[in-house]
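From the methods appendix. Each design record in this collection lists the tokenized structure first, followed by the designed amino acid sequence. Records were kept in a plain field format so they could be parsed without special tools. The example shown here is representative of the layout used throughout.

RECORD:
FOLD TOKENS (327 positions):
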């Protein structure tokens, strides 16, 4: 029988070897088993594949390397690119990628996961910079900013994806975050844009002023036409009224010419002698004072004629003599 210390020592050794032999693979990891620095197949350790869970390896001889299989984000540092117009642009972009071939990734990037990720980001940054430089050099600023931006992204994504396959990676997405002009160029561009906007504003103002003049001229013309038509209609109505008044006067004159002459003369006297300070120099025996000179005969004749008309049209009722009672 072994002594207690020996048994305890063996148990410690077995536990240590077991802990060194066991390893756990997570859902987010891609593992590789290295035996003396060379990749071995999972079948050698008795499994078909290194799926998530608990696995075992040979202590000391075997080494497990784990890489992150989740999607990685790479913010590419700002780069300066020239367009076909020799205009300098500052471009920020980003890439989304993941590991799909862990063996190819290991062979190109190394067995240290952190260093391998840094190398992968550096390689991808260089590839996307070359792709953008080639595509920007074929286009103008307008094409880069708006016209053919999606086409540029598609071509750069294709180029980067082909190169990424050599590294065991798959490109999920490539996008441009920001495109800017250098400060010295931006100032001149902004001034030019401001001048263009000012010129366009002046053009709009001149068009508006011309339209205002045209509208004002049309309004003046229509106003003159309306006033002329109104004056024409007024003169027509006034003429018709004067004709009607003349006809009425003629009818009245024909009914009693003597009275009409008297009425006209009285209105003339009333108008002329309206003010006491008025002075009229005229011959006494002129026709104007005809009714003044013959006022008695005219009055008696008019009174006789009026009485005759009244007698023929209305009976005359004389008052009865007073009675004793009335006295």
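DESIGN:
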């Amino acid at each position: 029988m072994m002594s207690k210390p020996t048994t305890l020592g063996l148990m410690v050794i077995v536990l240590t070897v077991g802990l060194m032999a066991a390893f756990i693979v997570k859902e987010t990891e891609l593992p590789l088993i290295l035996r003396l620095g060379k990749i071995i197949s999972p079948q050698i350790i008795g499994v078909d594949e290194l799926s998530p869970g608990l696995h075992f390896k040979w202590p000391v001889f075997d080494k497990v390397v784990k890489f992150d299989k989740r999607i990685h984000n790479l913010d590419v540092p700002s780069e300066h690119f020239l367009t076909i117009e020799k205009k300098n642009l500052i471009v920020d972009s980003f890439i989304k990628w993941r590991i799909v071939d862990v063996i190819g990734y290991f062979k190109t990037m190394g067995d240290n996961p952190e260093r391998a990720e840094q190398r992968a980001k550096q390689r991808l940054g260089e590839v996307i910079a070359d792709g953008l430089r080639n595509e920007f050099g074929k286009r103008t600023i307008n094409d880069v900013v708006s016209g053919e931006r999606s086409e540029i992204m598609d071509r750069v994504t294709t180029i980067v994806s082909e190169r990424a396959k050599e590294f065991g990676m798959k490109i999920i997405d490539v996008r441009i975050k920001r495109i800017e002009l250098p400060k010295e160029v931006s100032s001149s561009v902004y001034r030019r844009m401001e001048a263009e906007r000012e010129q366009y504003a002046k053009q709009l103002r001149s068009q508006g002023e011309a339209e205002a003049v045209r509208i004002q001229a049309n309004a003046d013309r229509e106003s003159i036409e309306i006033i002329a038509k109104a004056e024409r209609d007024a003169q027509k109505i006034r003429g018709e009224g004067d004709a009607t008044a003349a006809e009425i006067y003629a009818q009245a004159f024909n009914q009693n010419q003597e009275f009409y002459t008297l009425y006209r003369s009285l209105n003339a006297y009333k108008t002329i002698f309206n003010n006491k300070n008025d002075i009229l120099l005229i011959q006494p025996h002129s026709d104007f004072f005809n009714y003044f000179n013959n006022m008695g005969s005219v009055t008696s004749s008019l009174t006789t004629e009026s009485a005759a008309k009244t007698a023929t049209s209305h009976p005359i009722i004389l008052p009865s003599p007073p009675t004793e009672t009335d006295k």
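APPENDIX NOTE: The first strand starts at residue 22 and ends at 25.
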